[in-house]
Structures
1.
Amino acid sequence: MMLINCPHCGPRAQSEFIYERTVDSVPPAGVSNDKAMQTLFTRGNPRGVDEEIWRHTFGCRAWMVVTRHRVTNGISHVRAVGPEALP
Amino acid sequence: MNRYSAFGLLRGALNGQKHWQPAWRDPEPKAHYDIIIIGGGGHGLATAYYLAKVHGLRNIAVLEKGWIGGGNTGRNTTIVRSNYRLKPLHDLFEFGLKLWHNLSDELNYNVMFSPRGAMFLGHSDADMVKLAERGDAMRCDGIDADLMTRDEVAKLEPLLDMSRNARFPIEGGLIQRRGGTARHDAVAWGYARGADSFGVDIIQKCEVNGFIRDGDAVVGVETTRGRIGAGRVGICVAGHSGHVAGLAGLKLPIESQTLQAMVTEGVKPMINSVIMSQSLHCYISQSDKGGIVFGGDPDNWPSYAQRGHPMVMEGAIAQGLALVPALSRLRMVRTWSGVTDMSFDGSPIIGETPVRNLYLNGGWCYGGFKATPASGWTYAHTLATGSPHALNAPFSLERFMTGATIDETGTGPMPNSR
Amino acid sequence: MTGPSRPNTDQDSSFIFDGMRYPARKGDTLAAALLANGIGLVGRSFKYHRPRGIMTAGVEEPNALVTVGEGGRTEPNTRATDVFVYDGLVARSQNRWPNLSLDFGAIFGLAGPVFSAGFYYKTFFGSAKRWMFYEHFIRKAAGLGNAPRDADPDRFSQRAAFCDVLVVGAGPAGIEAALEASEAGKRVILVEQDEIIGASLIRDPQEQDSAWVSESADRIRAAGGRILTRTTASGYWEHDLVTLTQRLAEPGQIPANGVAQRLWHVRAGQVILATGSSERPMAFPHNDRPGVMLSQAVRTYVRRFGVCPGQRVVIATNNDDAYLTAHALREAGAQIVAILDARPAPAGQANGFTTFNNAHPLSTKGSRHCLKSVSGLVDGVSKSWDADLLAVSGGFTPVVHLHCQAGGSLEWNDAAQAFVPAQSRQNVKTIGGAATPAAIFTSAPVVPAKKSFVDFQNDVTLADVDLAWAEGYRSVEHLKRYTTLGMATDQGKTSNMGALARLAEKQGVAIPEAGLTTFRPPYTPVTMGLFAGAAAKDAGAHKRRLALYDVHAAKKPIWQPLGYWFRPRAYPMTGENLAEAAMREARSVRTAVGMTDVSTLAKFEVSGPDAVTLLETVCATSVGKLAIGRGRYTFMLREDGFVFDDGTVWRIDENRYLLTSSTGGADRMATHLSYVRNYLHPELSVSVVNVQEHHAGIAIAGPRAKSVLAKLIGEEPPRHMSTVATKIADVAVLILAASYSGERAFEIYVDARNATPVWGACETAVVAEGGCLYGLEAMEFLRIEKGHLVVGAEIDGRMTPHDLALDKMLNKAGGFIGSAGLTRPALSEAGRRQLVGLEAVEGSIPEGSMLVTADGKSPEGHVSASAFRILEGGSIALGQLADGFLRHGEELIATSPTRGQRARVRVVAPHFYDSAGERYRD
């Protein structure tokens, strides 16, 4: 069980969070239908570092992007997203 | 090849086990093969076996980065069944189930397939309708399925908690009597021994780390044991499909997730069938050695770690104990995790890729073991003829882009919600 | 056999073994007490049923397994070395019949050569049925103890903890580390699997004696540290989370406060592993006989428990440590017959013992399950000694399990012939004997491989390892799996190194090149109930309680589970069954009025200037043109274009909307909305609040619903698909005029805390108009007749808007989620399943049945929901049928082979009642 550093709450047990999807699964706004489907239906799925969208469901409920190594589970970065993270 | 028999065992007892030969050779890779299969798991070895046996091909290699059967073949809960609701799925798995029933004789290797019945429990009237619907879909396509009353369930598994005030009371079940369990390692070894006897080269400790291209076609592979040329190359590395396909520049509709399983210390027989549930996510069976084999949901986030999450494990055990309270004082002795290819409709992918001469077999989610014979058979057909068998034609890679997905649970493209 | 240091005075408890009562002393393990009572034969091995005794004094014990406890507390396969005797302990030997001494299963041992490694892969051919015949007997012979049949009477608790330093193992190194850290001001947890701390110091007191141990413990506690005994660190997970299993009662013991064990999830800043090492046996023929024990274990029984397990002792060793055992035995009055030291020259340890160098054990003989003599090879010459105990020391294996579970690597220590921790991946370090095991002398004595046991419990011999090798199972993982080596309940703690050495020898490589199997949790077996904790009672699934639960419960409805909710399915009157009650309730809605609880519907309040933008992203229908006070039906698509939920959207105010969707999909919809709002569109000025449980909901439906409502609110009720905020019973309510039943209907939403008086007022008014309450079953009848959809039935995640005849409502402007997915070709191909109505021509239509054109044909669709016409009678259904839109009028068979039911049906439009919607209008 990992320890995830919520940008709003600090380090919390993974059991408070839910993984939602990878950053590369989200079709960018305004792309063609084909491109959108390609994005939705393919993944880099690296045996290494990827960016993942997690949510602190049983905490502050905020969304964040976790940069994580898929083999070692090392988390190098957690970035807040959502309205409160806008500049 | 030694023919295995009771007589052979007696002979071994008398001659100090001197006459046994290696079950498979340990050959050096040749410069070129007609067909190379990447991945020496059950599926890859079965593919090689049927390529030789059914299609008469001989110049075949199976390349395994570690030791054969060391991936998900050796990391599952050994359940064999074909009780799927959707036709393409139950047709494929049923074809496999029929092969399972003769597999020990076919391979002259006892894979200990034991059709002790695969039972889904229903916990409400709504569950029972869903189970009936699944059973009816199967029965109409000629596959065995029987609804069970509460009493029949209790008679088959006397240790189930049948109390009416249970959180998930048991209202009945759906059993596939021809389903059951098998000895997972034996499946890989049996196919390996069979394939080897036809001259297939099984090359262990040989990791593929690149594809050799000639224009839009693959003509061979780069490995830790050198370059090997090939007419056709079949990827068969479920759990790592994304990684290997990535070497050919392909991105797949697959996310790798960890699935845990566990086993208790051995006890005398107490669980007679394979117990699953329509509402809960655990499955329980007892191995021939007496251990209670337990599985649950995948960890639900991407991982190649082959290490599970304690909370997921605890959740699966809580569900299992709610069903069979007498398991409480048994001790869990071993846990293991496999890396599963979670596909984006929950169904496997067996077929061509956009790269010429390169084929893909993967995306088995958490249900690949039971498909081993069918997967091998249909993939062999695809590799031998260059086009899919009728059974695997629906399971093409392109179905995600066309929309012809095969979504048993109707969950959609996000594997973590499956 | 009682040794001189075991006083006879304080035999303060007794236990029962195989029906006989024996005395025991406080602090005894069951193994110690058995030895003290002269019991050498304790169990039978797994495969050959060979007689086995006690080999070790710790958790690595492969042989001495017994079943402890009674009823639901029965714990099979309990290591006698890992259970402390309590008064009244009941233990039974296992895997024997009729009894331990005379076990018919031993016939497997006589036929041992036939049952070589992997024999079962080579025989029992024939049909699967035939294998099951053999398997029946194999299963009976396999397994060890019997599981309890009863439910567990005790509880298991779970606790979370945090610390700066977690020290695992309270031997000299661990105690010292814990002391240092706690006195440096760190929060420390020190765990020890034994009942008392000290570990090797209990056996071999040196400068650090028991006084030092207890003084250190006091100082650790005084500095705020916590010492947990009888606690095993069994799993090392991600980011320094370690699970501890704590025994609050011994196996089979009635716990003092009802809690048998506790599971700790400890998140540690740093983990220090002072887990020591375990001694290795030696491989030689008949090395499994009762009376052959590990040297340190013998010393433990002599020094700690005051039990001398033998009087005439041969010691076999390849290291200095075994000489300590010789001294201990001599002090206890035993005779050291011979020391067989594998090392070629005397090592200055002899001290007057009869010591042979270049000496190896060769075999043992026994009678009546006791050791009689030991033979050995001295300088290649065979010798024999009469002995009742053989103490062996084959070297030491560091306990590196947790280090490896944490992802750390190992390196080979040649002097100790052992793997020791190298790189750590998490914040963990290993100290003491686990990091620096004692040096040993290596030799590969030439002994016959037959009956030279490596894995004692699973009866794997050197011959089996050799056979696996010969047959090509050469990877260490293949060896393990083919021979079952290391797969027993001791998890290979005593067997792995012996087998690995043999494998390396076969391969002609050094041991580290032969490979190593993976260490996975748990370190020692863990009780299943402990993992489940309190969740075992309810499968970990909570129940969600309706705000109006008490009101319903008082009416004794039939309840129906729906997700985590339980909702009234029907309110039967005396003598009514479910179907009768539901039909009466539905008829009341059709002819008069009925009311039901719809509180569980998903509800979201969407407000702000960009509310429409957000709604038109989530909903596939247009929302923008909705006037204030009006609402409309809507549905939502997944990104892949399939319909996944439906509901209604209401414009409450200029920039305020209420969105409802299905109960079953409520959590999914909440996440979806949150994702769209926070991740996709953080720039929007909009707020999305999940108000599902904030509002209780009451639906009133029927031809008299309008007049009921008029009385309740004292004004003209809103028109169909209109909304009004008003009061009922002096409580503020929001009324949505929406109909699921097909009748004129109103949904009344009220703050859940104030729902009861509103419900009461509504019920009074409904009853006054001749109406009644209705439950989910009647609601199902009503909606099927009307042709309304349900998530999970018609909306099954595989249907497009077109398949459900919803495509005309799609927002022409596009831009909604799923619009790209909808363009994929297969979503508009011929042959898709499409929504149809079905009416029975003959028989009644089974729900979930298959639609076929003739018996024996593959299904072309199925029945998603079935019911009866409420007023006219007659079986009707909704279904999905290939190309169904084009097949109205066709006759099919709806067949359910699993239930032996079938009906002839006619395909019709999916509206059986008021298809023009006349009844909504005022």
2.
Amino acid sequence: MQDNGPIMQLRGIVKGFPNGTLALRGVDLDIERGKVHGLLGANGAGKSTLIRILSGSYWATLGEIIWRGQPVQWDSPKAANDMGVATVHQHIPLVPTLSILENVFLGNGGRWRRSSAIRTQFNQLCERVGYWLDPDTLVSSLSIGERQMVSIFQALGTGADLIVMDEPTASLASEERELVYNTVRRLSKGEKKAILFVSHFLDEVMALTDQVTVLRDGLAVMRANTCDLDENRIAEAIVGKQIVALERQAESRVPLAVVGNDQIPRLELRDLASRGKLQKISMSVAPGEVVGVAGLLGSGRSELLHAIFGADKSATGEVVLDGKRVARDTGAAVKAGIGMVPEDRMAQGLVPDFEIWKNTTLPALGGVSMWNAIPVGERERDRGWEAIRMLGIKAISPEILVKELSGGNAQKVTIAKWLFSDVKLFLLDEPTAGIDIGAKTDILRLVRQLASEGKSVIIVSSEFEELLTVCDRILVMRDGQCIAERNARDTSEHELLLLAGGKSAATEAARH
Amino acid sequence: MTIIKENRLDQSDVLGQDVQTSAKTNWRRLFGLQEMGVYYALLLLIVTLTIITTYIGQSNYLSVQNLSNVIYQSSLIAIMAVAMTVVLISGNFDLSVASVAALAAVMLIGNADAIGFWPAAALAVIVAMSIGLLNGAIVQYVGINAFIVTLGTMTAVRGLVLIYTDGRSLSVANPDVIATMKSFEGGRHDGFWLVLVAGLALLAVAAFRIFQTRMAGKSLRPATLGMVVAGLFFLLVSWASGGELILRNPVIMMVVFTAIVWFTLSFTMVGRRVYAVGGNSEAARLSGINVTRYKLMAFVFCSGAAGFAGVLFASRLRSINPAGLTGAELTVIAAAILGGTSLFGGAGSVIKTLAGALLLYSLTNGFNILNLGANWQGLIEGVVVVVAAAIYTVGGTKAKSKTGG
């Protein structure tokens, strides 16, 4: 075994697909023991393809995989696993009806479902990672963060030397992210594992990794030690200078004029609550105002949006839009002029087998129909084209099925759904999660633009920096409760983190 | 609304994984097994049977007489299968159709003597629809899987049939009712002009649409192509019939029913929403669509159609055996699957389901003509269904592109 050279070397990897797409055009990559190697790139740059080649799901069309100095050919994820490469996938593939223990050792060939040997092994894993879970809890009852830990355990349980992590923190709240970071540090520094860490978050890449490779259009455009870099240079490598400039432009927005008191509020919530999920909340949102909701996972932030939208049947209290009460029903909410972009775009926001145009017109079919009953295909396709043009969706035509789009583009379609009818209030739940900086900037700019047209927006995000950029006012939620309200200009990411994390929540409560 | 635009498009479009289909007509997909498989199979079967019958010197399989027989025999199942397709598209499943049809038939036969044919038929359909409502309500409000619920109602409704008939066959005695039933089910009409005009109309519309897409430089849609094929087929049939084409009532009803459902699914908002509800019910709900109502109405519609098929069935026989139509639900579902309807919802076409039903009955008919006996029939039918499903699945995964990035 070679201990000093890179444990994994990729040489000139090319991957083409039958439809003519060239996802990778000759990528070299060296991953060393005891190092965290960051892999970055915009959506569609080829990261996922590269990971699938590493983990054995795809064959490389050309090029060499050198593992511990030996060229290898993997024909299945199992083969890769057996040789010591484990992958933690972005969409955590666990069996929800089995216990943590059974999930962690799912690939094991043992004869019995329960054995004390496995339990001992599990305890050792906990020990190594420094994180304890009850092995008998069902995975279905875990939070996303805990599930992420279970899948890391799963990777470790195979005894792998190279652990590939595909955006392990994308859907986590900042507290849970810290846990993943600690685990990664422990594994690489303490156990000399090699880790390939894929992420969209530049700050975590800076803080966590030792080396960085940036992919763009199927090529490795930058390879460097992290200590020689800063976030700006990485961002430039990912998307080109243009985008970084755009983001700054978005940051230096002009704050909206304070809305007069005589106006009817766009939205008024009166004692909106939902048992066990959301405690009573009353607030109002002015026309043209962007309100941010900062909170960790499980803080009730998504539940708030669902309750406003009428998607939560058990919610109580009143939702008043432009002075009119909205019935507790998604149909009524849409009719009244509320649009919702849910957190999980593929599961909640889009019909994956529909083309872009069919998704775009779904909530407002009446507007493209004859006699309000028969949709006209041509008008709908024009809508699709308009959505592509307006939001810069990367698709050659609206005939493309949304399941074939990458994350950022699919998200844009989810938002585009609401742009063609008279929507007065937009509810955006994590609209920028897991998408590249370019798409993110587009979406944030769109939010500001909607606000300047007099629409109101409530936006939930785990990235507080983003909220500070785009919002007028920020609510902080914790445990289903709104615990603080801040003017976006008077607060900082630091303060929001502290509030949402609960450290100063007690003093906050005392102050009010 | 202003436009967010950047020059970013040109960077990644060369390689971008989002770009797969070109705006040009994708002929391979249009004529691929996925789109057209069931038509190919039907055509292949008819050609094979024609060649064999000609070779062994039997009466011509392709005679208008024989073909219209096949269509007549398949009409009941086809009506149920078309309605079943709607339930499947909405993301549910209904095993109870055959029992519901039998119940409707029993209601009609049992009451027609007393209250007359039309009131009894209305009663039968209403009873059938109320069972659909029950199915839908249990599935949507209690949240039990549709397969389990309708497995239960299938058995229970068959039980109702047995209770109602006390296990004996029922038949009608009133000559007036018998006469109405005969004219309702057995009526014949000369459909020559109808078929001719329909064929010409389809071709005209298709020609107009092809012209339109050519002018706009857009891609040809499968529906247009289907119109051409159907139009040519209609013209062929009217030509082959030699000026007189006798259509029986159930065939006309089947065609009209299928046409209405096809139009509703393909061109109306209701249809689009049915597909959306089946494709992703949560996304549909969060787009303001009343998912529960759509799924429930699909059940009611399906059971109503089954009730109507039961009325036709009872009128054909003018008596009913309590075990009548047992097992027909499987033929109905098989027809829908042959037509490429997804059991997971969100995809399916009633025209293809119709072709699937015709395919199954062409098989049966072929067995009869060739004197192969019923023993082989089950085996062959089963193989055909599995092969069809395999083609759809394999074709589906191949067509799907694996994307990176």
